[in-house]
Write a structure and sequence with these properties.
alpha+beta, Arylsulfatase, C-terminal domain, 6 helices, globular
């Protein structure tokens, strides 16, 4: 989940590219420092056969690809794509790269399966153990992300190579084909209304299910969806 943060504005000098180069240099230095410190932390476990190592980030970083710097300001790929490195116990040789998109929610069920622990409740994510061991294929599924969960400002869904960003702040809907346009430069919402409609329905269903789950947890204190959302849910057949 990405929390809401206002977009960063242009620097006083008004040159976004110069500011971007400066931020990228600072960011690279931070990564170099982190890499060195992680090496010191993990060195004692290099020969261990009973240690699982997982390296993951909670968000990416924007460097003015879509007019923003920083993070928690959009749902474009530069903020959503994060590293996920998993070292299995006894792994001493080179590993493999999994191209199938996965979700940060998959980490917990993966750890539980590797540890031989059965969860007492249903989990949203899926275990990646079979993928890591090269024994299986993860079925295609919809992956969701959102900004400002309590206000439903911006949601995104990805299914296969298609991705839709529904931005209520700016009143726009952005559809991308990540296979041919990984940097999200061409909005295909008007050209592919069929895909646009299907992905938008997935987002509305996700919002409805999230609302119902929050209502069960909060009891009578749950806040009803807006009139607009209720109408959309009825139109999709998710509410009466």
């Amino acid at each position: 989940m990405i929390e809401r943060r206002p977009p960063l504005t242009l620097p006083p000098q008004g040159d976004p590219h110069a500011h971007t180069r400066r931020l990228e240099a600072l960011y690279d230095s931070e990564l170099a420092y982190l890499d060195a410190e992680l090496g010191r932390l993990l060195e004692p476990f290099e020969a261990a056969d009973d240690v699982i190592v997982i390296l993951i980030s909670d968000h990416g970083e924007a460097f003015y690809e879509h007019g923003y710097w920083g993070h928690s300001v959009s749902l474009h790929e530069e903020e959503l794509r994060i590293p996920l490195l998993i070292r299995l116990p006894g792994a001493h040789e080179g590993g493999c790269e999994v191209e199938t998109p996965v979700n940060i929610l998959d980490v917990m069920p993966t750890v539980l399966e590797l540890a031989g622990i059965e969860s007492e409740q249903a989990l949203q994510g899926r275990s990646l153990v079979d993928l890591l061991r090269g024994d299986g294929v993860l079925p295609e599924r919809a992956l969701f992300a959102e900004l400002s969960r309590h206000r439903n400002d911006v949601q995104a869904v990805r299914r296969g190579d298609w991705k839709l960003i529904l931005d209520r702040r700016l009143q726009r809907e952005l559809l991308y084909d990540l296979a041919s346009d990984p940097h999200e430069t061409r909005n295909l919402a008007a050209m592919r209304p069929d895909v646009h409609r299907e992905l938008r329905q997935l987002i509305e269903r996700y919002r409805f299910e999230e609302f119902m789950a929050q209502g069960e947890a909060a009891g009578s204190e749950a806040r009803a969806p807006s009139l607009e959302t209720q109408e959309q849910l009825r139109a999709l057949g998710y509410a009466e």
